[in-house]
Design brief:
Aspartate Aminotransferase, domain 2; seven-stranded mixed β-sheet; five-stranded antiparallel β-sheet; 34% helix; binds pyridoxal-5'-phosphate
């Protein structure tokens, strides 16, 4: 259907440079211009509607134009939009900080020994700045407690993504980004991530939908962390901080950790006197399911530093926070002239509108019946996804709560990946958009991360669009798959 390109599309193509986008491709066709949203539905410039199956890049929790979030914002607008946190306090920022630490320390039935208490909140603007803050705090804390030599050492997981600022890229391990900015970065060690589907130690055959459920190994991935920690200690420059995403690595390709990985690793890291630095930017605020608002809690782990952003405001405004402990906070106390201050901050720190809407979002998330409703839909999503297993191109179905990654492969019997240049993931997402469902892929992994307001019908529509799009895009082979014994 040839339509005249909209004015907005033309202005966009003339002037807007999009993130992580090959702009030559972008300029080839008229982009979707989103104009309105309500609940899970978004509407474009031509009046077409779409389901927001990736929660507007993992930010939205309760749907668009939620009446309570809208009202909270309006109430705050009636007072003041922004005031500086430099030398001044504000009500929404103070109240939100108190509420955040209240929810950040609850653990499930089995808290891991040595858990600290998170009591302090440092605000910033997005996931990258929240991680950057955590890294600077860990760095400076280590130097003050252990002395400046040897210099602090960071350890993070293979494939990790922690944001785009220079420090956050340094602790990430995505080769493409490291190649681009290598000269700007500091060195961080990496250790294997528990990627059960492609684990060299997993002796199970790839015959069931979620590799974690048919894993056969001796926790070699935990052993690898232990070896790294030992090597660093023996070298005279021990690891100061372990940076990780709890339960599920997001941008690394939606890689979920098997139950028990995190508490085992936490015990080792603490044994070596290193800080646990949790990046809950993607996983926070109930995304990984169950009753826990933060992913680490479901494994009983409270970190020393915790970065939150994406879902903090329910997807409304850019606001982020780094939570930390009294002992880290205290290392920055002193007489003025000692200059032990944390020299770091942003103009919009603790923005009043962001904090007001974040408080309302927490109020929506916290009641037990809200958690129960999330659990119900989460299990319906689980049931719905089992259908995908019959597709030849589906190698691994990874679900952790409301986060789903479907890894597409050329040959499921050998886990042979599609070459990235074939853009299989992107093409499946383009086919889904034609079917009225918006999401994005990470390489060959198609992501589903619907907002919590998604109805069962909408969930089914998303899964159907995904099924039909994979079926349309991927070549089929004739090897028949074993049927599922248990759901993914
Ligand atoms: C998105 C993301 C970041 C970066 O957040 P921005 O708001 O994009 O700067 C950091 N860590 C994780 C785990 C993320 O998913």
């Amino acid at each position: 259907m040839a339509r005249r390109p909209s004015v907005v599309a033309a202005l966009d193509q003339a002037h807007v440079w999009h993130p992580f986008t090959q702009m030559r491709d972008w300029l080839k066709s008229e982009p979707i211009v989103l104009t309105e949203g309500r609940g899970t539905t978004l509407r474009d410039q031509h009046g077409r509607t779409y389901l927001d199956a990736n929660s507007s890049i993992w930010t939205n929790l309760h749907g668009h134009r939620h009446p309570r979030l809208d009202a909270a914002l309006r109430r705050q607008l009636g007072k003041v939009a922004h005031t500086s946190a430099l030398g001044l306090a504000s009500e929404p920022a103070a109240r939100l900080a108190a509420e955040l630490v209240q929810v950040a320390n609850t653990t499930g039935p089995a808290p891991v020994p040595g858990n600290p208490t998170l009591t302090k909140v440092f605000y910033s603007d997005d996931g990258s700045t929240a991680v950057e803050t955590a890294l600077k705090l860990a760095y400076e804390f280590t130097r003050r407690v252990r002395g400046p030599k040897p210099s602090p050492r960071f350890l993070s997981l293979d494939g990790a993504y922690h944001g785009d600022t220079v420090g956050a890229v340094s602790v990430g391990h995505i080769d493409l980004f490291h190649k681009a900015y290598g000269g700007l970065l500091f060195r961080a060690d990496k250790v294997m991530a528990p990627y059960c589907y492609r684990c060299p130690f997993n002796r199970a055959k790839p015959e069931r939908s979620d590799a974690r459920t048919h894993r056969s190994c001796q926790w070699e991935c935990v052993g690898a962390v232990e070896q790294q920690l030992n090597r660093a200690r023996q070298s005279g420059r021990p690891v100061s901080a372990f940076v990780y995403e709890p339960r599920m690595q997001g941008a690394a390709g939606m890689i979920p950790q098997p139950d028990g990985w995190l508490p085992r690793v936490a015990a080792l890291v603490r044994d070596h006197g290193a800080l646990m630095v949790a990046d809950e930017v993607m996983t926070g605020f109930g995304r990984t399911g169950g009753d826990s608002l933060f992913a680490g809690q479901s494994e009983g782990v409270v970190p020393d530093l915790m970065a939150v952003a994406k879902g903090l405001t329910g997807g409304y405004l850019p606001l982020a926070a780094t939570l930390t402990t009294p002992s880290i906070f205290d290392a920055f106390l002193g007489e003025y002239a000692e200059f032990r201050t944390f020299f770091h901050g942003h103009s919009y720190t603790g923005n009043a509108l962001g904090c007001a809407v974040a408080r309302e979002s927490l109020a929506l998330l916290r009641p037990a019946r809200a958690a129960a409703a999330r659990r119900t839909l989460e299990s319906r999503l689980r049931t719905g996804l089992t259908r995908l297993w019959e597709l030849q191109a589906v190698g691994d179905i990874r679900q952790c709560g409301w986060v789903v990654g479907i890894e597409l492969v050329r040959d499921w019997t050998r886990r042979t990946p599609f070459p990235l240049a074939e853009r299989i993931g992107m093409r499946v997402c383009e086919a889904m958009a034609r079917r009225g469902v918006l999401t994005r892929a990470i390489g060959n992994v198609v992501v589903l991360m619907p907002p919590y307001c998604t109805s069962q019908t909408e969930l089914s529509q998303m899964i159907e669009a995904l099924y039909d799009s994979i079926d349309e895009i991927s070549p089929t082979s004739s090897v028949s798959k074993p049927s599922l014994r248990h759901s993914p």
